[in-house]
Write a structure and sequence with these properties.
127 residues, 60s Ribosomal Protein L30, Chain: A, 6-stranded mixed sheet
Amino acid sequence: MARTVINTGQAPQAIGTYSQAVRTGDTVYLSGQIPLVPETMELVDGDMEAQIRRVFDNLVAVATAAGGSLADIAKLNIFLIDLGHFAVVNQVMADYFQEPYPARAAVGVAALPKGAQVEMDAVMVLG
């Protein structure tokens, strides 16, 4: 099955050997997004809520470039430096998603790229 690379200037450019997303058939695999501002490639200023919103905004940009939206996400993975921020994730996520919610995992990790506090990746199904 053919693979199509998804790329948009509306989300941070890859900072390593990966694509922003890859589509195979009706499935789109969105790479991990950290709270980078696309124009500056620097971490967003602000508190944890601002970081989580920036990550969701980055996912929105990649999903849109792939021809979908957050409503098409079947699986969302969330990586947090501090699982104490899980309640903030739930609060902000409610602003971006409606039922039926995607399947989801939240994982505590020791570190993330560029010193980010949160990272998310997703699997989106189109059609």
